[in-house]
Design brief:
Layout lengths: L1 H12 L1 H4 L3 H13 L6 E4 L2 E4 L12 H6 L4 E2 L7 E2 L5 E5 L2 E2 L4 H9 L6 E7 L13 E7 L6 E12 L3 E13 L2 E23 L3 E27 L2 E28 L5 E29 L6 E23 L8 E9 L2 E16 L3 E24 L14 E23 L4 E19 L4 H7 L2 E17 L4 E12 L3 H4 L3 E5 L2 E4 L7 E12 L3 E11 L2 E12 L2 E12 L2 E15 L4 E20 L6 E7 L2 E14 L6 E10 L2 E3 L2 E3 L2 E12 L2 E8 L7 E6 L5 E7 L4 E11 L14 H4 L4
Parallel strand pairs: 5-8, 24-28
Antiparallel strand pairs: 1-2, 2-7, 3-4, 5-6, 7-8, 9-10, 9-40, 10-11, 11-12, 11-39, 12-13, 13-14, 14-15, 15-16, 15-17, 16-18, 17-18, 18-19, 19-20, 20-21, 21-22, 22-25, 23-24, 25-26, 26-29, 27-28, 29-30, 30-31, 30-32, 32-33, 33-36, 34-35, 35-38, 36-37, 37-40, 38-39
């Protein structure tokens, strides 16, 4: 409870100072009232632009809430944002990638008021100048420019209730005086992330079922400090520091496991029970520093941008995994097997980027640049396995652990160069062409003294990639009402560092995940055709081809232990064939009834084609039954976000949001349909905003995956993360609302951060 209490003290101590600046807030509200006649949603060159400063839904929302209501954007887990037809969405601020890891970024977006935002740009197919992977898109948040000196900030507290109660708070401040600007944020949260699982797998003769709960307590604290100094009229120097810490102690898994056996006629032969009781302590730290220099070369916007960065990531994970037997009283008091895991990971990264942009008078822009990343990861995994019961069921005296140590070190160097040419040929036609050339050199080395065979397999794993990644886009404005554009890009996806660490994470004794140091980079080719009418209605056609897809593959095998036939299920991280995703979506973004109703609505279909087979764990060489996924699926996708203004003074708002995703084939099997109805009520009062949000009202956002193989093997997963919750929040904006925010600087290490946890 220390983190929320600390920030609560800051929250209330700032109120006396904050009350002094109400006149500026009134002026800002008047300006917003005038700009409501602006076009809110439009297509520009290679991106969609959502002018939220001209929208009535901004005030009192958080940035994350606003992003969820942005056309083409969606979230199914209230943590990650997706762009229609894309895998992931990367967050940029003022054209610069956010200098935060994934967990702190979510907290930042959920605790930052949306009033600071001028517009949101959705870049569905990023150009060669962007360091993105796979089919990732970009969400660029453009902040309002506030010109005068002074201090401003905001404070926010919220409390949520699902299965458990959670709380969060944040404090942000901006200061500007002459040439110096400082921006800082402190945020924290305390919660227990609950999950309920039903896991089933097996054949027609042997079936496994595990049911139970996972509770993951978390305490988080993080923040950033950005210092920006204007050296001359044309040059700036900035230093940014970001920090995030997470502590998850006493995380528990409690599952009841049942093994049933049947004869050839389907008659029940036997039923055996065990209980999985796991306990885990984990903590991680993410610290980064970035030095930026920017030189403006002329009045047209030409500039030189240099970055140097250092990133340090540490994660320590210690788990105690126990398989409990029924015992004399059938109370599962007897420990049959214990696996103790010590899984640390340390990542150090040094990075640098150079970007040169030359703008010419004939609407021609030339851009070139490069980047360098040097990363070292150290994974010193230790496993201790204790067997307390012999095959006859008798206790084993003086148990000695079976040791399995693996010290895996991974070194990676990435060199990248890009060049782009952008030309506006006329008021109607513009185009952009470019390419990236990337060189990746990596070396993984493993030391496994307990298993020399495995040590030899993992001793040296070298990878060398040389990739030329072209990009093309054009935009044609047929007339004032009609616009059409086309984009093509090729990208690669490198495996995350945790995916390469050859470690098993046990869910139950017969259910685990296995990472893989042999995973290689995958390739992606993206095409997109967009048509827009009256800047309100749009049609998007998208096609993505993935080769050597990096994913988890569910593999099964039967084995005997203590005279009992069992079925083991392993989720193996590896490259798995090819995949195609095709989608067609129509949508609109409009206001109705004199702006009492603001709505955006999308409906479309997505067609997935999967083609992959696997029967061997590439890390251990263990052979399983063949797993095949060559299934096609076509699914319906619907999303609508609506804000209803309830009074003339624009102080009461009702939000009604809904999404539906039809069943679709993914790598793990058939993902059944998901949907969620979210409601919100918001009250604006001067500089205060009070809000109540109820998410997943119908409790329909529950993941179910089912897979049947021709061999008779099947696999079923049901995962309830208790996404139905109610959140009450209070936000207060204080100080001089005309303060200009410090420049947001893209760190040279941002591309690496996305590959940590």
């Amino acid at each position: 409870m220390k983190t929320p209490i600390l920030i609560a003290a800051i929250f209330f101590s700032g109120l006396a100072f904050a009350q002094q600046k109400k006149s500026d807030s009134v002026k800002t509200q008047n300006i917003e009232g005038v700009t409501l006649t602006k076009q809110v949603f439009k297509k520009q060159s290679d991106r969609f632009v959502y002018d939220v400063a001209a929208s009535p839904i901004t005030k009192g929302n958080t940035t994350f809430d606003l992003l969820k209501q942005t056309p083409l954007l969606s979230t199914t887990d209230d943590k990650t944002l997706k762009i229609a037809g894309k895998n992931n969405a990367l967050i940029y601020i003022n054209g610069r990638k956010t200098n935060m890891d994934a967990e702190s970024l979510v907290q930042f977006l959920k605790n930052t008021p949306a009033e600071n935002i001028q517009k949101i740009e959705v870049i569905t197919v990023p150009g060669s100048e962007y360091q993105v992977e796979s089919s990732d898109g970009i969400i660029n948040i453009v902040l309002k420019k506030k010109m005068s000196d002074g201090t401003s900030g905001n404070m926010r507290m919220s409390n949520s209730q699902n299965k458990y109660n959670s709380s969060s708070a944040s404090f942000s401040v901006n200061y500007r005086k002459d040439k110096l600007g400082i921006s800082a944020n402190l945020n924290g949260a305390e919660n227990i992330q609950p999950q309920t699982y039903i896991l089933r797998n097996g054949t027609d003769k042997v079936k496994n079922e595990s049911t139970g709960d996972i509770d993951d307590p978390n305490k988080n604290i993080g923040g950033y400090v950005n210092v920006d100094y204007q050296l001359t009229d044309n040059s700036n120097l900035a230093l940014s520091w970001n920090s995030w810490a997470n502590r998850s102690y006493n995380s528990t898994i409690d599952l009841l496991n049942m093994i049933t056996k049947y004869d050839d006629n389907g008659n029940l032969i036997s039923t055996d029970y065990t209980r999985t009781k796991n306990r885990e302590n984990a903590r991680n730290y993410n610290n980064s520093v970035n030095l930026n220099y920017e030189l403006k070369l002329d009045s047209l916007g030409s500039k030189l941008n240099l970055n140097a960065a250092y990133l340090n990531y540490k994660r320590f994970q210690y788990s105690d995994n126990n398989t409990m037997l029924p015992g004399a009283m059938n109370d599962f008091s007897l420990t049959g097997k214990k696996i103790i895991q010590d899984i640390p990971q340390i990542i150090n990264n040094f990075s640098g980027t150079v970007d040169y942009i030359q703008k010419l008078k004939n609407d021609f822009t030339f851009s070139a640049g490069g980047n360098f990343n040097k990363t070292k990861t150290d994974n010193d995994t230790k496993n201790y396995t204790y067997q307390f019961v012999d095959p006859a069921g008798n206790p084993i005296p003086n148990v000695e652990p079976k040791l399995d140590f693996n010290h895996f070190i991974y070194d990676e160097n990435i060199y990248g160069l890009y060049v782009t040419f952008e030309k506006k040929f006329s008021d109607k036609f513009s185009g952009k062409v470019g390419t990236r050339y990337e060189i990746t050199n990596s070396l993984g080395t493993a030391d496994n003294p307990q298993n020399p065979v495995e040590a030899q397999r993992h001793q040296r794993i070298e990878r060398d990639y040389k990739n030329l990644l072209p990009y093309l886009t054009f935009n044609y404005a047929i007339n004032d009402k009609n616009n059409i554009s086309y984009s093509f890009s090729s990208r690669m996806r490198r495996p995350s560092f945790w995916e390469l660490n050859p470690v098993k994470n046990y869910i139950t004794e017969d259910n685990y995940t296995q990472n893989n140091p042999f995973v290689k980079a995958s390739s992606t080719y993206n095409q997109e055709l967009t048509y827009m009418y009256k800047n309100s209605y749009f049609l998007i056609l998208n096609h993505s081809l993935f080769k050597d897809v990096i994913t988890q593959v569910p593999l099964q095998r039967k084995y005997m232990e203590n005279g009992i036939e069992k079925v083991q299920l392993a989720y193996i991280r590896t490259n798995f064939g090819t995949k195609q995703e095709m989608s067609a979506m129509i949508g609109m973004q409009k206001t109705f009834f004199k702006q009492y109703l603001t709505t955006n609505f999308n409906i479309g279909v997505q067609h997935n084609i999967n083609d992959g087979t696997l029967n061997t764990d590439p890390t251990t060489g263990q052979v399983f039954d063949m797993y095949t996924n060559n299934t096609k699926s076509t699914s319906l996708v619907i999303q609508t976000n609506n804000t209803i203004r309830l009074d003339k003074k624009k102080t009461w708002f009702l939000g009604v949001n809904y999404f539906f995703i039809d069943k679709q084939q993914i790598e793990l099997g058939l993902l059944k349909n998901l949907m969620s109805l979210d409601l919100s009520l918001k009250k604006n009062w001067n500089d205060w905003t009070f809000a109540v949000n109820v998410n997943d009202v119908l409790r329909t956002n529950v993941v179910e995956i089912e897979d049947y193989q021709s061999s008779g093997n099947y696999n079923y997963i049901k995962n309830d993360q208790y996404r139905r919750n109610m959140t009450v929040s209070i936000t207060y904006n204080f100080g001089n609302q005309k303060v200009k925010k410090v420049r947001d600087i893209e760190s040279a290490s941002d591309a690496i951060k996305n590959r940590t946890r």
